[in-house]
Task: structure prediction
Amino acid sequence: MIIPLLKGLATTLKHCFSKPITLQYPEVKRPVYPRFRGHPELVINDDGSRRCVACTLCKVVCPSKAIKVIEPAEGEHHEKYPVQFIIDLTRCIFCGFCQEACPKGAIKLNNLYELAQYDKSILVYDINKLTQETSQIRMPDWL
Ligand code: SF4
Ligand code: SF4
Result:
């Protein structure tokens, strides 16, 4: 009778001093693996310009037609850049084909995974929301 009781007590005590396996989410976020595929975002250069040259290759390869609009413009030295870039994240399947197809390394899947929203229209990202710097600080609206 007393032996099982002591065994149970020992197990309880052992777990009292072991490292917890749960996290205080959402205050503490679980780190993701390096190969995790979050949502696509546009990469910016050191000078703050976008790396994208509006070639539309990513749009062509996207299997779920999530990349809706890539509107190109031309600079004074005939360099092309996008003035609008829209991805519907409700259609995106996070396959990474856009990242693989891009000849400039201008679109990358980030490590953000908090995309739940009450309103689906919030998940249609324009060029500003897709730009790397701003997307890193984006949080779901309901937090
Ligand atoms: S990750 Fe896949 S589905 Fe999403 S935009 Fe890129 S190619 Fe399209
Ligand atoms: S993100 Fe890459 S593949 Fe897509 S339009 Fe820009 S340069 Fe082309």
Q: What stands out?
A: The mean pLDDT is 89. The helical segments are 2-17, 57-61, 97-101, 127-130, 132-135. Residues 34 and 139 are 21 Å apart (CA to CA). The first strand starts at residue 40 and ends at 42.
